[in-house]
Amino acid sequence: MEHIPTPSSTVGPFLHLGLTEKHSITHIAAPNVKGEHIILRCRVFDADGSPVNDAMIELWQADSEGRYRHPDAPRANECDPAFLGFGRTATDEKGCCEFETIKPGAVPAQDGISQAPHISLAIYSRGILLQLYTRIYFAADSANEHDPVLALVPKERRSTLMAHPDSSRSGHWLFDIRLRGENETVFFDV
Amino acid sequence: MADLKKNSTIPTYRRLQPGTQPTRLYEPYKSTRLRNPAQPLIYLPHTLSEITGPVYGHSPIAETDNDLTLQHTGEPLGERIIVTGRVLDDSGRPVPNTLIEIWQANSAGRYRHGCDQHPAPLDPNFSGAGRTLTGDDGTYRFVTIKPGAYPWLNHHNAWRPAHIHFSVFGRAFISRLITQMYFPGDPLFDHDPIFQSVPDEKARQRMISKFDLETTQPQWAVGYRFDIVLRGPEATPFES
Q1: Does the structural domain A14-178 have CATH classification 2.60.130.10?
Q2: Which residues of B are designated catalytic?
Q3: Contact residues, chain A, for B13 at CB < 8 Å
Q4: pLDDT grade for A1, boundaries at 50, 70 and 90
C-alpha cells in the first residue's frame, strides 16, 4: 500500500537551535583519510544578490575511491570509518560556510559508465519550503565531459554547477549558489 | 541518457506527487519570492548518489535528549506533553534507527535564539531542542512542553500556529525530510501561509498530530501521535 509522504516545510529562521548550534558537521573527512584534501567554501545568494545568512547546507559525497558509506552501496565496508561522507552547517552573515573534506572519486552509474566526481548538496532556509537539491562538480575535471547528469543540463547553465579553485589559497575551492535570477544555479527534481 | 534510466541494479525512489508537497514559490509567504528558482528544476534519474545518504556518524544521543523537560535543574513552565509516533516509508515499512531532531518555541511562544524578537519571556529551564533515534519498529517518543503561538512579520497581524520542527534523515539523501508538526484544531491554520502552502488537503492533514488518550499519562501529560512518512524505494519484483 502506498502512503503519501509527510509534506516538507521550511526550517524557519531558528533552525540553528535544533540542527547546527550543537550538531554541525564541517569535517566530512578526518585529516588522515586517504585522498586529496580540500576546503570547500559555499556561498548562497538570493534573487537580489544579497547573501542568505540563515540557510543550512547539507553535503553528501563518496570517498576518493568513489565509495558511498551506506549499506546499499557497493564496497561500503571498504570505507575508512574516519570518512563520514556527510556534512552540514549554517551559513554566516556573508552567506558562507566551509567544509573540510576530500575530493570524491568517480561514482559508478549504470552499465559500467561512471559519474564525474561530484558532491550532492541540499539547501534549507526560511522561504524554502522544500529543500533544493543541486550538485557540485569540479571545474576543469576532464571526467565532466562524459558525466551523464551534466549531459541533462543545457550547456550554457553547466557552469553554475562548478566549484572553482581559489587562486589565492591552494587546496581551497569555491562554490556559489544563486537561488534565483541571473546565473541561477541549476536545481534538480529528484 | 538511456544509460541513466536503466535502473537494473539500484532501487529507484518514488517521486513526490504533485500537490502533496508545498508550492515552492508561494506568494502569500513572502520569503519564498527571493529564494526559489525561476527556472524549472531539471529531472534527475536516481543514481547511487541520490539513493544513499548519511546513516552513520551522527553524534551520540544523550539520556535527556528526548525529554526536553529534563534538560535543566528546574522544570519548564507550560503544558507537559508526550509526542510519539512511527517513521514509515511510503510503502508502510518502518524506518528503524534513524535520527529525528526537533526544535520549538517555549510555552510563551519564544525561541531561545538570538534572532527571536518576540517580547515574550524566555524560560531558563527550557532550551527547546531534542533528538532521538527510532526503534526497530520505527517508533520514537519525546516529552516536551506545548509550544505557544507567536507573531511574525509576513503580513499584518500574522501569527504562526503552535508547531514543533521535525528533522528526519531516513535512508537516502532524497528521503530527508524537515517539516513542522501542528496540534489539532488550531484556529490559526486558516490564516497561516506556511501551513496553507501545501495544496492537497489530505496531505496538509498529515502535518497535524492527533490527540491520543492511550499515549496520555494520568496525572502527568497529554499525549499526541505524529506518524511521519518518508519517501522510500519502489518495491522490486522480488519483494512480496
Answers
A1: yes
A2: 111, 150, 160, 163, 165
A3: 190
A4: low
